[in-house]
Amino acid sequence: MELVREVTVEEALSKGFKLVDVRTKEEFEEFHIPGAVSVPLFSKEEREEVSKVYYEKGEKEARLFALKLIGPKLHAIVSRIREIREREGQVAVYCWRGGMRSLAVATICNLTGVHVFRLRGGYRAFRQFILKRIEEISENLKVVVLYGPTGAGKTRILRELKEEGYPVVDLEGLAGHRGSVFGGIGLKQPSQKMFDAYLWQELERLKGAPYVLVEGESKKIGKLFIPDAFWRAMERGRKLLLTLPLEERVKVSLEDYGVGDFPPSVYLQALSRIRKILGEEKYSHIKSLIETEDYKEAVKELMVNYYDKLYSRSTPETEYTVEARTLQDAKEKLKELLSSL
């Protein structure tokens, strides 16, 4: 009789298995399968201790030592997984590669009558699966890319359109970054693996849509990279340009970046990264504006002397231009244009 049955990533996802991650809390927080529940077999310190025994005394001694560590916790672990199974239905447990941790937990669960599956290949198999799926979906994906200078409200408009049911992938939202030198203030980026998983989820959700609407980005958003296949789809996509008057863009930027929510030192630290590009005179002027908390004028100066120049060099040739006076006007004109594409 087979004590532990395995299920593939494809089967687990298509049949709605609830996934249980038995890696450490720290591993889970860095990356995991979206929707999974963390039920760690070891703490970070315990895992390090087991590894040390393994390298010093061998596999047999490491397994005995591991059993000593997890023995007192087994009842709580199995009880937690039983609760998940009773609430969610079929359960599959996984670790990094479908190794000893997931095998141990699945074996103990099944021996005690809590029947679970083990995810074949663990998280690594899931990652291979989603990277392949991103490539497959992106190959024939029709992408509409919205460009526009800083403060044009692209992100806000796209998020409002998403709420209205438009097929939007919010890359900056997934990446936890606004895509500029000041874009990481107040935000935390996920790991590259989590970003890829979030993007895969969105592409699966929208795979039947006539097009996918995204904001024009560089290939790197903060510390994260857009996967090659999806980046190629963006490059060959239809490109739209959104423009707003400078004063309106300053207003939008002040709101969207939460300017003033942090002390001047936070903004000065970001400003220092473009000091050489601005030159000493402009840098000193903007620095003085930030120090005196004249943020409206500081943002205006940054747009004129940095962002607009950068955007004019990096924006590709666009097919359509949406000229608007306000954000609401821009959104309505964009909706009208999208209906004709």
Automatic annotation (TrEMBL):
Q: Which NCBIfam families match?
A: PRK11784.1-2 (NF008750), PRK11784.1-4 (NF008752), tRNA_sel_U_synt (TIGR03167)
**Parts forming coiled coils:** none
Give the record's keywords alphabetically. Answer: Selenium
Q: Which Pfam families match?
A: AAA_SelU, Rhodanese
Among the GO molecular function terms of this UniProt record, one is: thiosulfate-cyanide sulfurtransferase activity
| Native organism taxonomy | Bacteria, Pseudomonadati, Aquificota, Aquificia, Desulfurobacteriales
List the protein's name. Answer: tRNA 2-selenouridine synthase
The residue ranges of the Rhodanese domain are 13-135
